[in-house]
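Whiteboard transcription, Tuesday session. T.W. wrote the structure tokens on the left side:
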């Protein structure tokens, strides 16, 4: 019973981060299941079954708070679903570990760009009336959906930074759109796992605990996205992209001593915290100027 309560709390925390920053539910939950000795395919299957419920709750919450671009959702879900279903069916035969360092390196650089743009750029740089083109969304959906199934998490970490980097959508709408479209990806991946693994290989008690925690967190996260300023939200997302992908990169580079890892993580977290503090300071200054100019 204690273990189920822990998993419910993890589901709550993972969904709170995912729903407010657009990523990390699958990565957090999968890491925990693997820590408890669950096989990668079974862990990914259990996470995606849980996400069918949590992403539905998250999507409805984001729709209620106006955080969703429905056109972009529709363009993402078809290629994303195809990629997720394919990845789920062939998980055991795919060399996903080989590709992880390259994807992580790309996302790490993208995270630096996203964080820098929101920290040092103008706060409102959205191109009015523009939407991400279909020629971008189709391959993005395929790759992100495929990575999500094979790695137990990847839809948000891939889709969110790519869409943020293009300046075509508000930050909150990027997050809400990615989270809402993830429901279709979770359903497709789950169907693939049901076909390839069978229902007996799903870890049902842990899965239900994760669902329960995620359902409670979903509306809170959607509300936070609505009220947090875009500059601060962008810095939080960019920092999360950097620190999560740093772990994959450090584990892939044998020439970096393991004893250095803690120091590198500490430095990255300090940079992230400094970025958040600077973003808050800029927001306070801009609001003071706006107040004085009235």
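and on the right, the sequence the group agreed on:
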């Amino acid at each position: 019973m204690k273990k189920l309560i822990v998993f419910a709390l993890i589901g709550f925390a993972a969904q709170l981060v995912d729903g407010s920053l657009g990523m990390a539910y699958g990565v957090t939950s999968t890491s925990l299941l693997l820590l408890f000795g669950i096989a990668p395919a079974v862990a990914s299957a259990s996470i995606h079954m849980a996400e069918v419920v949590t992403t539905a709750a998250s999507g409805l919450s984001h729709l209620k708070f106006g955080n969703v671009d429905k056109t972009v959702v529709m363009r993402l879900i078809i290629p994303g679903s195809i990629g997720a279903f394919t990845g789920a069916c062939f998980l055991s035969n795919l060399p996903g570990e080989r590709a992880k360092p390259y994807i992580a390196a790309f996302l790490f650089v993208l995270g630096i760009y996203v964080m820098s743009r929101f920290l040092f750029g103008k706060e409102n740089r959205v191109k009015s009336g523009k939407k991400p083109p279909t020629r971008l969304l189709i391959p993005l959906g395929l790759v992100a959906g495929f990575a999500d199934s094979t790695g137990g998490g990847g839809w948000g970490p891939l889709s969110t930074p790519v869409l943020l980097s293009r300046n075509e959508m508000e930050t909150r709408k990027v997050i809400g759109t990615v989270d809402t479209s993830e429901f279709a990806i979770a359903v497709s991946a789950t169907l693939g796992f049901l076909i390839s693994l069978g229902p007996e290989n799903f870890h049902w008690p842990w899965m239900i605990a994760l669902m329960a925690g995620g359902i409670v967190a979903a509306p809170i996260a959607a509300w936070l996205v609505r009220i947090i300023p875009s500059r601060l939200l962008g810095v939080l997302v960019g920092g999360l992209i950097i620190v999560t992908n740093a772990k994959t990169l450090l584990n892939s580079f044998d020439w970096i001593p393991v004893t250095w890892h803690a120091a590198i993580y500490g430095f990255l977290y300090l940079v992230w915290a400094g970025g958040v503090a600077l973003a808050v300071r800029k927001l306070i200054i801009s609001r003071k100027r706006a107040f004085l100019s009235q």
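Someone added at the bottom: The radius of gyration is 19 Å.
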